[in-house]
């Protein structure tokens, strides 16, 4: 007779789901496609960069994705059910999973422009003669490349600096007042004042907080503050799918934004599809993230940072400094700089040596003879490899 453990073991090799092929052969050992394709993998001591594929999805997220992939569902039903859960976590009236924060910006503005008028939805990005508004106001200091997400709707951007300029810029053409949290220290007008002026003038507001969790509280802080729409990336610190993000805010605006989203075609958002696996994976990542012991996470990052810092600064000519960017990418950030009269290596040379080593390591350049390192994307133990390799490369170049 089998004991309980043996029964469980036996069960685990029986496929849990029916195969699509009736006469499927027994599964072959999985092919490691990454290896097969010859794709370089590396230790990510840089951070959550799109070019480096963002973050690694934790087991909870991968299991959610795997599970979601085994059944058909109506795409709208998935978005509605997941959206309700996300909204209740984030103090928003409603929410929807988008193809990253960039697509949340585009779709949120689309919703503002069109409302639930189907003819307007199909007219985008052509605004002329449709009765739709056509301008987005932002502070000059908040300008970044990602504002292309806003002009994708056909709108143009009006840049202002002072409160006086803002009041003058608001007109019957103003669709949205946009705010960029990570550069909120680069504008004269703060969050609350921005929202207050907008409310007084009846203009909707949107805030981009793409890379600005942790702190976890930022997920609800700006909904509480009164921003009508809040946009965040899913594949940065939250470690959801890299291709996912969240648009949250006022119910009527989320409803309107969804009219520009798949499954509906004839829309500017049809190419911004998020599949059921990504939507449910995003929710699983959010659920995990809000339940995380954030203090413990922070301690782990600090310990790893100290390990690398101690190794680096043991090399003569190297200086180190740890900062904690307050507005976005809020994680211990180690700056390692060296005196190039003592260490014969420029930043590019160091990056190449780390990249071409075994294992390959990525860090960020930060000037002619300096790099930045963050430890939040490391797997546990990798900090030791980064520490010893960095020390080795710097020592070898010491004159
Ligand atoms: C990363 C980022 C985006 C784009 O987010 P995705 O999730 O990659 O689409 C937009 N705005 C800011 C400020 C960002 O940092």
UniProtKB/TrEMBL annotation:
Requisite cofactors: pyridoxal 5'-phosphate
Domain of life assignment: Bacteria
Domain Aminotransferase class V: 163-258
Chain ranges passing through the membrane: none
Name recorded for this polypeptide: Aminotransferase class V-fold PLP-dependent enzyme
Signal peptide location: 1-24
Gene Ontology MF annotations: transaminase activity
PANTHER family tied to this protein: L-SERYL-TRNA(SEC) SELENIUM TRANSFERASE (PTHR32328)
Organism: Ravibacter arvi
Lineage per the UniProt record: Bacteria, Pseudomonadati, Bacteroidota, Cytophagia, Cytophagales
């Amino acid at each position: 007779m089998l004991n309980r453990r043996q029964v469980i073991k036996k069960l685990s090799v029986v496929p849990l789901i029916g195969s699509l092929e009736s006469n499927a052969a027994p599964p072959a050992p999985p092919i490691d496609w990454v290896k097969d394709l010859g794709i370089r993998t590396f230790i990510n001591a840089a951070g959550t960069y799109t070019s480096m594929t963002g973050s690694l999805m934790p087991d909870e997220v991968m299991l959610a994705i795997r599970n979601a992939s085994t059944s058909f569902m109506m795409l709208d039903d998935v978005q509605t059910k997941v959206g309700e859960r996300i909204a209740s976590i984030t103090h928003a009236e409603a929410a929807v999973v988008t193809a990253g924060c960039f697509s949340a910006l585009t779709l949120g503005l689309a919703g503002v422009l069109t409302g639930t008028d189907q003819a307007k939805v199909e007219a985008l990005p052509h605004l002329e003669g449709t009765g739709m508004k056509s301008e987005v106001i932002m502070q000059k200091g908040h300008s970044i490349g990602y504002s292309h997400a806003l002009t994708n709707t056909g709108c143009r951007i009006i840049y202002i600096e002072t409160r006086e300029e803002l009041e003058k810029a608001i007109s019957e053409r103003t669709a949205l007042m946009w705010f960029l949290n990570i550069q909120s220290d680069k504008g004269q007008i703060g969050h609350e004042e921005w929202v207050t002026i907008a409310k007084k003038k009846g203009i909707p507001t949107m805030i981009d907080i793409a890379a600005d969790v942790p702190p976890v509280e930022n997920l609800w802080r700006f909904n509480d503050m009164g921003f009508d729409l809040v946009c965040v990336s899913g594949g940065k610190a939250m470690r959801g799918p890299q291709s996912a993000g969240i648009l949250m805010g006022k119910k009527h605006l989320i409803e309107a934004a969804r009219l520009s989203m798949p499954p509906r075609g004839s829309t500017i958002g049809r190419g911004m599809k998020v599949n059921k696996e990504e939507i449910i994976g995003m929710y699983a990542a959010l659920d995990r993230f809000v339940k995380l012991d954030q203090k413990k996470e922070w301690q782990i990052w600090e310990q790893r940072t100290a390990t690398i810092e101690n190794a680096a600064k043991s090399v003569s000519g190297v200086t180190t400094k740890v900062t904690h960017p307050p507005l976005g990418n809020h994680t211990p950030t180690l700056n390692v700089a060296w005196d190039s009269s003592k260490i014969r290596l420029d930043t590019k040379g160091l990056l190449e040596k780390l990249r071409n080593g075994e294992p390959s390591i990525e860090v960020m350049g930060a000037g002619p003879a300096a790099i930045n390192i963050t430890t939040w994307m490391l797997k546990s133990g990798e900090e030791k490899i980064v520490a010893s390799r960095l020390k080795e490369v710097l020592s070898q170049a010491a004159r």
